Amino acid sequence: MRPDLCKAAVLHVPFVDVINTMADASLPLTVPEYLEWGNPAVRKEYDYMKSYCPYTNMAAKDYPAILVRTSFNDSQVMYWEPAKYVAKLRATKTDKNPLLLYTNLAAGHGGSSGRYDRLRESAFTYAFILAELGISK
């Protein structure tokens, strides 16, 4: 909602298209999570969801450097949701800041489970943040 407040952002398996995802009652977690996120079939809840949904509220303006991380085997946030968000953001944003989509093809919602694989993922994320803050040298 306030991309001007930071220089870099890392979104780990982000739930960014709330309205469309919650409108699909066939997804395993949708109906049980109506209490948390809202039910877009109920007008009052839809209006509230529309006020906070990142995908819906994307606008032509400057955004910080962003690294979006997702996993192909995520059962909670389907990989296409962050991918769709990145595609729309690339077409919408007005800055030249990096916008990276990192898709782990072998992991689930929490990323890699092996110790060294998890460390490599963390190192990649920290390298992105440090580079964007100008601390990488």
Portion in beta strands: 5-15%
What Rg is obtained from the alpha carbons, in whole angstroms? Answer: 16 Å
Please list the strands of the largest sheet in the order they lie side by side.
1-2-3
Total E-strand runs: 3
Report mean pLDDT, rounded to a whole number. 89
Describe the sheet with the most strands: 3 strands, parallel
The CATH top-level class label of the largest domain: Alpha Beta
For the termini, the CA-CA separation is 31 Å
What's the shape?
Answer: flat
Specify the helix fraction band: 25-40%
CATH topology of the largest domain: Rossmann fold
Contiguous runs where pLDDT drops below 50 for at least 5 residues: none
Helix run count? 5
CATH homologous superfamily caption of the largest domain: Alpha/Beta hydrolase fold, catalytic domain
User: What is the name of the CATH architecture of the largest domain?
Assistant: 3-Layer(aba) Sandwich
> Structural class of the helices, strands and pairings?
alpha/beta
N-to-C SSE string, H for helix and E for strand: EHHHEHEH
Estimate nothing, just give the exact number of structural domains. Answer: 2
Structural write-up:
This protein is an alpha/beta fold and 137 residues long. The protein has two domains: 1-14 and 61-137, Alpha/Beta hydrolase fold, catalytic domain (Rossmann fold), CATH 3.40.50; 18-53, no CATH class. The chain is 36% helix and 13% strand. The protein contains five helices and three strands. It has helices at 18-22, 34-37, 43-52, 80-92, 115-132; strands at 8-12, 65-71, 99-104. It has a three-stranded parallel β-sheet with strand order 1-2-3, sandwiched between helices. The longest helix is centred in the C-terminal third of the chain and has 18 residues, at 115-132. The radius of gyration is 16 Å and the shape is flat. The model has no long low-confidence stretch (mean pLDDT 89).
